[in-house]
Amino acid sequence: MRQEVSAGAVIYSPARNQFLLVQHRDGHWEFPKGKQEGDETLTQTLLREVFEETGMRGRLLTFRTRSSYYFYHKGKVRKTVDFGILLSDDDPVLSSEHLGFRWEDAENVDALLKFDEHKRVFSQAHAHLEEEGLL
Asked: What domains sit in the chain, N to C, each tagged with a CATH number?
């Protein structure tokens, strides 16, 4: 079985008090994420992928959570994604990898996310932001 390692971010804008979601090509909403390349650290992957997919930079918090799941592409693949939280008030620039983006209030994010693993990641990130007094 093949293994893939990726990193992504829950992006929160303190000025908007909203979270950024990007729309995958198949239509579902998710957080920016992508594959680790070469000898990158997961932090470097996270920052590169966020910038490539949204054009955004920001302050990365120490929070981390991991999501693992399986999918099929020329055989079974186990994908592990490390997520962090990025604080940014930048305006996103849509990449060709996605159909769209949207800023959403916390109470709407869960309903827009398709996958339970993404919902769990968001729940943990949201709780961390509350504990840090950032919400």
From this structure: 2-131 (3.90.79.10)
